[in-house]
Amino acid sequence: MTPSLTLAVTAGVLVAAGVYLLTERSLTRILMGVLVMSNGVNLLFLVAMGPAGNPAIIGAFDGATMSDPLPQAMVLTAIVITMAVSAFVITMAYRSFQLNGNDEVSDDIEDARIRALAERDDVSDSYEDATFSDTGEDVVSE
Amino acid sequence: MLLCLVAAHFVVASLATLGSRVAGRNAFAIAALVPAATFVWALTLGPSLLAGGTYVEVLPWIPTLKVALAFHIGIVQWLMTLVVSGIGTLILLYCRWYFSSVPARTLGLLVAFAGAMLGLVTADDLVVLYVFWELTTVFSYLLIGHDSSRRANRAAAMTALIVTTAGGLAMLIGIVTLGLATGTFRLQAIIAAVPSGAAVTAGALLMLVGALSKSAMAPFHFWLPGAMAAPTPVSAYLHAATMVKAGVYLVAVLAPAFAGVVGWREAVTVLGAITMILGGWRALRQNDLKLLLAYGTVSQLGFITLLAGLGTKAAALAGVAMLVAHALFKATLFLTVGVIDHATGTRDLTKLSGLGRQLPVLAVVAGLAAASMAGLPPLFGFVAKESALYALTRLVGGDGIGIPPAVAVLLIAAIVAGSALTMAYSLRFWWGAFADKPRKEPTAIGHAPEIGFLASPVLLGVASLAFGFLGPTLTSVLWGYVDSVPTGGEPHELGLWHGFTVPLGLSATALLGGYVLFHFRASVARVQATFPRLTAADEMYRRLMRMVDSLAVETTARVQRGSLASTLSMILTVFVIGVAGSLLFLPAWPQVRAWDSLAQLAVGVVTSIAAINLMWVRGRIRAILTAGATGLGTSLLFLFHGAPDLALTQVLVETASVLIFLLVLRSLPKFFTDRPLQSSRWWRLLLAASVGGSVTASILVAASSRTHEPASAGLETLAYEFGYGRNVVNVILVDTRVWDTMGELTVLVVAATGVASLIFLRSRVTGRRHAVRRRVEQNEGAWLRGSNDLNPASRSLIFEVTTRLLFGAMMLFSLYLLIAGHNLPGGGFAGGLVAGLALIVRYLAAGAAELEEAAPVDAGRLMGVGLVVSIATALAPAAFGGRIFQSYDVHLTIGALEAVPTPWGPVNLFGDLHLVTSTAFDIGVYLIVVGMVLDVVRSLGAGIDQQRAEERSPLPRPDSTTAVPASARRPVR
Prior knowledge:
The complex is a heterodimer of chains A (about 140) and B (about 950). Chain A is about 60% helix and about 0% strand. Chain A contains 4 helices and no strands. The longest helix of chain A has about 30 residues, at about 70-100. The two termini of chain B are about 65 Å apart.
């Protein structure tokens, strides 16, 4: 199977633009990244479908020239989900403006805390030293 | 029957909460009926098993993996079943008095554990055995950690879990290795075949590791003393009588076949002897009676494992005898400690004094058990130990395993030393618990134990005595197992008297040595105190755990820098290195076509330019329109490729998305944050380019190296034969891969609900009701009824007229797409989106009130109905004997209308309507999509309208990229 270079390159450009936008701080720009990237990924399915063909409708065209329907079904699912997700993300951006006056994705506080632990060579909160003394003082039931 | 009994345990366990509420403490006694029934059932098996038969039960489970619920009861399994169920019954009865209020959790777990243990000792399929094995580990963990608010319980439970699970995992690998090497997972079949080879050796040794960790053998022994944090009856049952014996059981079963593999005997004898001495030595130091017993258990387990693992006839007999003897006396002793603890409130032997006089029955029973533990005649412990020493003395002559005589003598010396320690700590126990101590007041008894409370220890203690006289009978019972061991000469039977033999002399030496150790206990304690403190196994374990934790902290700190961008960059960098890196080793470039058509090239170029432009756009609205352009470009590429369904849906989605985004952007600043040109920008650009390049290169390579037929080959005929539709894509969505669509619908509902809850925060219904009530009645003349409330300055008559005219047509078109979709481009998604767009148009033309006019339904309900419809379509065929999601077709014709005579000849007025049941599923899809769009528009349109009116929306600051948050606009109520 010989894939179409044009499609593959277009998909690559869309994905690249998506990556650039995804690494932004503004949630709206991240959303743009999601949109353009998912378009790019959907194009990859076209490459996987093989050469351009006729619509996969039985009886309308010759079966041999039919395009592969399976990736199409997957892409159809992906398109609609992207729409739902992007509606959710834009609402998050709105909510962020409503609460903070901007839509910047801030750094995770928990991660900063873990970094502080690592700098002190400390253990995590969930760590518990397992000691049982031989004298039995530690080990009493009830 | 066996499977039913195991299941009965779990059922009763799950009823524990209910039972304890109804029956109070008697729930323990009621629950004891289950193990009691098991005990009785096992007894009825006795005659046939003793006659040489076996009991087998097989139920298919995972035939493709050759895994079945297979159970096999031979002699050893039978004995274990009796021990597990018999002692289980007595322990549960004992609990009736031990606990003052009913801990339903402990009750349930205890019964469930008994069930798991029963399954473990009878399972023949190694995979099933492993499942039960791990179940006992989990129940043990939960029982040890019964009081999670206490650090000691948590730490002990976690240690027990980690150590035994680590061993269990090793065992699982061993099981899989053995299973693959022999082609079966059946224990009996594997043993019967006595396979050989490197894989079998490795598998057997790995299983041994699992067994040793479960039976608390050095270097895994340290979890067992910690496990004493569990309630005393639990310790008696799990950590003395049964669970820790699981390892011994496994060793005993595997030894006949695998004792000969390299390393087995070495590991068993060396670790067994070390564990026996180490445990005994530590037990001598304990002041807590329960801990003393725990270390004693460690010591005894070392001894028993050594015997069971040796793989000679004599040792096998002694091992099983010791196993039974230990279960009897150790359970008695633990229960005794429980009674003492209950009566006096302490288990510290330095505080107890004069109990023997006050609790004479208990003192006698505990004395019997302690004597049995020490190996004093005529108790069963003596009989078992005699046979053990006899088996060991045979080793000096080789006994078929070719052990060097010097090593055998060394082993005997170690065991005699261990036995002396056992004698010493047995004396220490009884003396510590019951004796009058000089210069000490007798300990006060809070309340005397009831008869029922004493019944279990008394029964078990008397059994220790009775079994001592049953040596010959037991020998004949065990003979079936002893005979299955291929190595070594036949031992003499279990018995109290074999004449003046070497073993008797060794026994006497050990008893004497033990007495001396006890008598000079003060000096011994001083010697022990001077012993250098070694880095013990538990210390290593603690350090290891600490290391794991700090490694996790360090790794997390390195990898997770906190910002989304850097986390993503890290993931993508790995992708680039992995994917593009592997492409470097490509032998030849892939064959590619430049383009399918010139139109494809043109659209591709334009789409790419739009995407690149999108990276630099600063205005929000421009960005959204540019992103929309890439989407429309994509839809054209779909169309050129022969995917009209995709193109249609993509165009509709793009339109709807852009409209929805614009609804939100009203309240956001015009421009994005304009950060100063950072150096990180160039890094991001580099990353973006490499990811894009990797994606392009990898898809070209992947697609060009495809040699296989597409997975969809043949679908073009199947779609029609089974899905009754001509549009293959639609058939895939509503039939072939309908589960995917089902999942997708759920995502849609979740996302829409998320949007609504982010805007309305509490309920999506409240805003709507309000609008409905304001419905204006005298608005008959207007083009749109909802437009009356609008500000005349912001009204557009042309828009209203167009909307009025278009709405009906759009709804009709959406229904057409829905119905036609099965055979022509369209379907539930496209139809639903068109209907959704029609609703958006109504909203845009005349606002929230008009949206209510257009769709006077709750969006959540619409989506719910959609989900119900699609699920009903899924399940309905099952009700008529079909499979879930099976499709049926119906031809609908009306005879009277088929040939209506007209001047132009007969005309078929109704036509031949070909209905497929999966259309009903598509209707569900349609409803959900309409509901989703409605929900989103209502939230982001009407909801934000309302917030703007109430000054709760963000207010963009002029000439800034930030906004005034809602809280700053209005004082917080």
